[in-house]
Design a protein that fits this description.
The complex is a heterodimer of chains A (321) and B (447). Chain A has helices spanning 70-76, 83-93, 115-128, 141-154, 171-180, 192-204, 225-240, 254-258, 262-265, 277-295, 305-319; strands spanning 16-19, 33-36, 55-61, 98-102, 133-136, 161-165, 183-187, 212-215, 250-252, 297-302. Chain A is of the alpha/beta class and 321 residues long. Chain B is an alpha/beta fold. In chain B, the strands form four sheets. An eight-stranded parallel β-sheet of chain B has the order 8-7-6-3-12-11-10-9. In chain B, a hairpin with a 5-residue loop joins strand 1 and strand 2. In chain B, helix 1 (5-11) crosses helix 2. Classes of the chains: A alpha/beta (321), B alpha/beta (447).
Chain lengths: 321, 447
């Protein structure tokens, strides 16, 4: 008699979310990316279908990346000052499946770029590369409320993923994304209840559930990693047990968090016992990402191509049957 | 699952004889359920009832201790997800040393391993194990073991499929209570006898769950239950599945043939991929991870992951709220306020140290909450900060009255100035801005 294993019978699956649309579908992307759809916990293939693999998005900024440590910025070199060349390298050389464009320059404390300038920039990005796009605002609520609706309009029909909206600020951006056919990032501060509440608020405006992605606000390895890790596990368990208002894929901003960590930045002469700084930075980003994969991450927004390569291999292994 | 008081009552004689010291059998059963009394106090228990009750009081995953001074404790986990309670016994991390390396290579490896000590948020992080793997004859195996035991203070795993080699090695380091890894399932009964003789745990190897269950049952019958399961398999997906099944079978089905800690060997040449694989094992229930790579960046990241995963989700790590002098402080040194959440405090501490500007850090009791959380929960308020300044006697430490607060709580500046009588300077939002901020502060002569 064969041994009886413990297989859970889940009642619900994670929503499938599609980013990008091709010419036939009214957009101009060369391909689309679908994610989510999990019928069980991460990588337990024998228990339920896991139809789509987690996807890594490369980060590209509208302005020269600031505060990136040497080990990270040196890989990109001069293109960090040239967003279109930067995007091109990510797509052509590093084979990015998704680009995450951050409109950092619009922030009043950075360059305070005008909405028109950014709209123009986004249009150029749209024309210069064919991969599906994630567009993230500058983080200043007032500015993003003016900026993101315009970007949404410029990208109409491209079926992008746009964000972020929060519990206190979701109406304007949600309305635009809804009208222009985009997906939306719902950001909550490491809190399952707020994540759920925000999804309810957004869907009450008419946004279909399968166009929402949860940003659980992750911390880097060693910097609050475990809080988001457990919030993601709890949220995913609730979703699989039937809670449709939590059945969204997760997006994790791994790059921005891990490259802020002291361990990813501090020179070897200051902490000789920590080992080579370049490898340390890369592994910090990669282990942070791998950790969140085990908690259910669907999109990882990352920075260092070597870290991406390592995590990509890990995903391939984890998705192999 | 522990039995309820009523479940236990059904198994008792129900005579209310009072010989146990309780007025009724039910009262005694309730105390048993709380584990407040010993089963032995009932003299009339049937052997069947006794067996059932003893079995139910056992932990679903056996606690295994070994190593020097028995300092390594593994197993006895109670949940599948850390938020349900917590993970109790952190993954032991160790390094494989092949005995066919040259003495020089071995010594170099040992030197590197000995340097792997890190401090993070007030805790010392270090690997626990060194595994000697046999590739040559008995003589060499024992010789290498001797080299290693002279040079290193970690606990041992003996990896050899040769009974004689294991026996001799065990007699050399019996007092250090090593873990016996027979590198396969040949002669398992003999190995169990050996393990029993030396009172050390034994690793059982199989990537097939059904076979593993048969093997552990047979060993239990033979009388040896200090076991650790090596389920290293061909693919990572199979391993994650098996690690999950073992945990679920032990906890949800109370299947004792799986109620043991697990061991994984990382077989991956590329140090990055090796690290990632080890990270997957640490996240997904492995009790022991053995690897080759000894690069500090590999081990720092893995031990940090372990620290994160095995921290108690119910209790944030806290430090004692007080004033901490950093560097050669004097009466002019700046005073920085933060919370008593360990992560926050140690992040601030690291940056203040990096600035090389002697300063005081005042850690306010926010019950272990971080700056913004504590502020939102009203644990980090002008009142609280003012009373901390008073009770810590900050006035006696410095001759100025300037206080630096985190940038995220700039909004409390006015109120705090009013309540404390101190002049408030708003610091950076992120700790990483502290060195530049402090340099600027002292240059402008404010500090």
């Amino acid at each position: 008699m064969a041994m009886e294993l413990v297989k859970e019978k889940w009642l619900n699956a994670i929503n499938k979310v599609t980013i990008g649309s091709t010419a036939e579908e009214g957009g101009s992307r060369t391909k689309v990316v679908t994610l989510g759809g999990e019928e069980t916990l991460p990588f337990l293939h024998a228990e339920g279908a896991l139809p789509y693999k987690p996807v890594i998005a490369y980060e590209v900024w509208d302005t020269p990346a600031r505060d990136w440590p040497e080990g990270l910025s040196s890989v990109y070199g001069k293109v960090l000052n040239e967003p279109f060349a930067w995007a091109k390298i990510c797509v052509e050389e590093y084979k990015a499946e998704l680009l995450c464009v951050r409109l950092v320059g619009a922030h009043p404390d950075v360059e305070n770029r005008s909405v028109e300038e950014e709209a123009d920039f986004i249009e150029k990005i749209r024309k210069s590369c064919g991969v599906p796009l994630i567009v993230v605002g500058c983080g200043d609520t007032t500015k993003d409320n003016a900026l993101l609706p315009v970007c949404s309009q410029v990208l109409k029909g491209e079926h992008c993923l746009i964000g972020s909206v929060t519990q206190d600020n979701y109406k304007t951006i949600t309305a635009s994304c809804l009208a222009d056919g985009h997906n939306i990032i719902a950001e909550s501060p490491i809190d399952v209840n707020i994540a759920k509440q925000l999804n309810i608020l957004i869907s009450d405006m008419g946004m279909p559930l399968e166009r929402i992605v949860i940003d659980p606000t992750v911390g880097a390895l060693g910097y609050g990693f475990e809080y988001a890790y457990s919030i993601m596990e709890r949220s995913r368990l609730a979703a699989l047990a039937g809670d449709k208002m939590l059945a969204m894929p997760f997006i994790c901003f791994v790059g921005q968090e891990s490259w802020r960590a002291k361990e990813a930045r501090t020179a070897e002469d200051q902490h000789p016992e920590w080992g080579a700084v370049l490898e340390r930075g890369i592994i910090w980003e990669a282990v942070t990402a791998a950790g969140f994969l085990q908690a259910g991450a669907d999109i990882l927004v990352m920075r260092h191509p070597k870290a991406v390569e390592i995590v990509q291999k890990n995903i391939e292994e984890l998705m192999g049957k | 699952m522990a039995l309820s008081g009523l479940d236990i009552y059904k198994l008792l004689p129900k005579t209310n004889c009072r010989e146990c010291g309780f007025p009724t059998c039910l009262a005694f059963a309730m105390q048993l359920a709380k584990k407040a009394v010993e089963l032995g106090r009932c003299p009339y228990l049937s052997p069947e009832a006794k067996a059932t009750l003893e079995e139910s009081s056992l932990a679903p995953i056996r606690l295994i201790t070994f190593g020097k001074d028995k300092k390594i404790e593994l197993g006895n986990e109670t949940v599948l997800f850390r938020h349900e309670d917590k993970f109790y016994h952190p993954t032991a991390v160790g390094f494989i040393i092949d005995d066919n390396l040259s003495d020089k290579e071995i010594e170099e490896r040992l030197d590197r391993i000995n340097r792997l000590k890190f401090e993070r948020i007030g805790q010392l992080l270090e690997p626990e194990l060194v595994a000697i793997r046999q590739n040559a004859d008995k003589k060499r195996f024992v010789e290498v073991l001797k080299i290693i035991s002279q040079k290193i203070d970690l606990s041992f795993v003996l990896m050899s499929s040769d009974i004689d080699s294991q026996k001799e090695a065990l007699s050399c380091v019996a007092d250090k209570k090593p873990l016996v890894h027979p590198q396969g399932k040949e002669n398992l009964q003999e190995f169990a006898k050996l393990a029993q003789e030396f009172k050390v745990p034994l690793v059982v190897c199989s990537s097939d769950l059904e076979e593993m269950s048969h093997l552990t049952k047979a060993l239990k019958k033979q009388g040896w239950e200090d076991l650790i399961l090596d389920i290293t398999a061909k693919s990572l997906t199979e391993e994650i599945w098996n690690l999950t099944q073992i945990r679920r079978l032990a906890l949800k089905k109370k299947d004792r043939s799986f109620g043991y800690p697990t061991l994984m060997v990382v077989d991956e040449k590329d140090p990055y991929l090796e690290t990632i694989k080890a990270a997957d094992y640490i996240a997904k229930y492995a009790s022991i991870v053995l690897m080759q790579g000894t690069q500090p960046w590999q081990i720092l990241s893995l031990l940090t992951l372990r620290q994160n995963i095995y921290s108690d989700p119910q209790k944030p790590l806290q430090i004692e709220p007080k004033v901490y002098p950093v560097g050669q402080v004097n009466e002019k040194s700046p005073v920085l306020v933060t919370t008593n959440f360990s992560l926050t405090y140690y992040t601030v501490l690291g940056e203040v140290e990096a600035s090389r500007i002697p300063s005081y850090i005042m850690s306010v009791d926010t019950e272990g909450m971080s700056v913004l959380t504590a502020w939102a929960a009203e644990k980090f308020t002008p009142d609280k900060i003012s009373s901390s300044i008073e009770s810590f006697g900050v006035k006696n430490l410095v001759r100025h009255n300037r206080l630096v607060i985190p940038g995220y709580v700039a909004v409390m500046s006015g109120d705090l100035e009013e309540k404390s009588g101190w002049q408030v300077i708003v610091g950076p939002k992120e700790a990483s801005g502290i060195p530049a901020f402090l340099k600027n502060l002292t240059r402008t002569g404010v500090g």
